[in-house]
Amino acid sequence: MPLPHHAPYDPLDPAHHSDPAPRLAEARDRCPVSEPRPGVYFLARHDDVRDALADHGAYASVDNFALEGGTRTADLPAVPITMADPPYHTALRARLRRWFAPALLRKQEPRVREIVAGVLDAWQPGQKAEIYHDLARQVPTRVVYAFLGLPEQDWERLHQWADAIDDILPELRTDMPEFLAITGYLGEQLAARATAPPTGKDVLDGLVHPADGEPPLTPVETVIHAFQLIIAGTDTTASLITNLLHELLVDRSRWERLLDDRSLIPAAIEESLRHDAPLQYVLRTVSQEREISGCPVKPGDRLAVSLQSANWDERAWGADAADYSLDRPAGQATTMTFGYGIHTCLGAPLARLEARVVLEQLLERFPDLRLAPGYHRAPPPGLVMVRRPARLDVVL
Question: Hey, is 204 helix, strand or coil?
Fold first, then answer.
């Protein structure tokens, strides 16, 4: 049950999560640094969010899947990149970055187009469809599994295991059957790769066959890093695609503008990332005494850093910050959706690529796409870290 509190917004209160805009606006205006739970401080303003994410020396990433003050994240057998601090984080990010280099990601576009087409080929103009489960959730999972180099015949069961884990975040339980299943499966795949000659074709190969000058990773480390890439790259991108299409169809004049002018596609994606941040907040642990907007924090305190509130901050984005606008000026402020500083999301270019290809193909194949009659947006059941509709019903 939610604890009694007077903070405008509590990330662990389902009632606050389901309709965050008015509460986040109150937090920014009245209490930009609040304490919704003992030892947990909520950051609401853009500049505070940016500064906290940039200062990795004072705000550590350790335990950043445990929100309650004084609690610890489930003990993982190795440290994933999202919970790592320098110098380990620096070396690991450099290692993974070569798989997310722009030139390599551009080579992924034909495969992404093939995956999107494979989903849309089953659809016909005029039929009803549900975007989140039948398109948005299908594309990122298949793209990530292909990117990692996992056999296509195993994608469906991987999808089911990953869904179960995503559904309970920010909690992470290493004893749940799906966690044991997915990490056991990845261990088998990586062990087989380790005994085979290197190919340089995919991420799994790179994890078990280090490049010149890279120290080898332990088998456990390779499993946890592969697991992290799956969890980070699926539901967040699915939420991006669903949110994007919702905003374009809830006011269909936006869809019509894209039909007339495909050059607006990048702006449509960037504004969706700002207006509907798939990941609502990230967590940090205070490691040095600091003061944030006049509020002192001490070592051991937990920060809930609101990416969404930062993206809606009128001080950064102007009076229309709460609106979705295809005409938002470039460079108005820094969108916090993919984080900031050393933990900026490595997979951001891949997520943008997937959203662009989906939107391009939908505009081409289904120009009459519209919301289903009587559709009403509702949040997903339970408490989740992502922002999206539970479903998005359309007519093709």
Answer: helix
